[in-house]
Known about the structure:
4 helices, Four Helix Bundle (Hemerythrin (Met), subunit A), 0% strand, mainly alpha, binds fe (ii) ion, elongated
Amino acid sequence: MKWTKAYATGNDEVDEQHKTLFLMSDQYREALEAGQGESTYDVFLEFLSTYSKSHFSFEEECMLAHVCPVAALNKTEHCAFTKAVDKEVERFRRDGFDRSVASNLVNAIDRWLESHIGRVDVQLKSVMP
Ligand SMILES: [Fe+2]
Ligand SMILES: [Fe+2]
């Protein structure tokens, strides 16, 4: 999936971070579809975990600073995403790479980004100066 203007939040930094999330998911999906991705799964998970957490805290601060009406909902949905990623990191450490789990994860990330950014993050636009 690609970032489009439909996901614009009115904050360039947030938008750049979203583009990076879309890009990483896309690149990893391509690797999986090419029959690769096993050796890079740990790096992908590490990136996803670290980058999403720092993006979430940046965006949460931004919503608080601009008194965005969906600030609390935003945080709740971020927590759910973080929990799901942490759970997969744990599963991977315990059981190792599983192609169908990896594929489901990428699909879930795309669905989440589309839904969350399109419904919650875009509301930043209404409060940005
Ligand atoms: Fe968000
Ligand atoms: Fe976001």
